[in-house]
Write a structure and sequence with these properties.
The strands form three sheets. This protein has a six-stranded mixed beta sheet. The chain starts with a helix and ends with a strand. It has one domain: 3-Layer(aba) Sandwich (Glutaredoxin). The protein has six helices and ten strands, in the order H-H-E-E-E-E-H-E-H-E-H-E-E-E-H-E. The longest helix is centred in the first third of the chain and has 20 residues. Helix content is 37%, strand content 22%. With 188 residues, it is an alpha+beta fold.
């Protein structure tokens, strides 16, 4: 019995040490490519944004937590204007531009939007509800996945993003990926 306990402790210690020894870049996975139109019909490719820090937010106009989150995204977008930070809101509204453009205009949102009426990003990124946000580093790797509502205007969120931009190092503002309020994939 004692031998099994000692063996178990040794396995746990080596497993823990192996996790620590793994470089942070090994834990980052490449963000899947997508090609989608913006409301003006211009094609946006994720690969064109390589070299920039990208915040990819997946949302719909009918989702209450998304609607609550959008003003905080606008605040963050304005703070980072003119930097190597790109906010990209991927709308999965099936009506596309006829729903999204009026919503954006009525609310004064100026951050870039792509129209994902067929749910391409949702499938490729494994989205399970709205909103979901992916932070992508300059090398095109997902470094953070946030599920549900987040207040993107908080100074600690901005500090984490600036650290990623300036140092290439991701440090989550909350220490973990804590889920927030969200809506299911299908509208109710």
């Amino acid at each position: 019995m004692k031998r099994w306990l000692v063996l178990g402790v040794i396995v746990l210690v080596f497993g823990f040490l192996a996790t620590l020894a793994r470089s942070p870049s090994e834990a980052k996975k490449p963000a899947p490519e997508f090609v989608l139109p913006d409301p003006q019909g211009q094609v946006v490719r994720l690969s064109q944004l390589k070299g920039k820090v990208v915040m990819l937010n997946v949302w719909t106009t009918w989702c209450p937590p998304c609607r609550k989150e959008m003003p905080t995204m606008e605040t963050l977008h304005r703070r980072f204007k003119g930097t190597d930070f790109v906010m990209l809101a991927a709308s999965q509204d099936v009506d596309g531009n006829s729903t999204v453009l009026p919503y954006m205009q009525e609310n004064g949102f100026t951050f870039p939007v792509v129209l994902d009426v067929n749910g391409e990003i949702g499938r490729k990124y494994g989205v399970t509800g709205y909103p979901e946000t992916f932070i992508i580093d300059r090398q095109g790797r997902i470094v953070h996945h946030h599920v549900g509502f987040n207040d993107w205007s908080l100074p600690k969120v901005e500090a984490s993003l600036r650290r990623l931009m300036d140092l290439g190092d991701w440090m989550p503002w909350d220490g973990v990926n804590t889920p927030g309020e969200r809506s299911p994939l299908k509208s109710q």
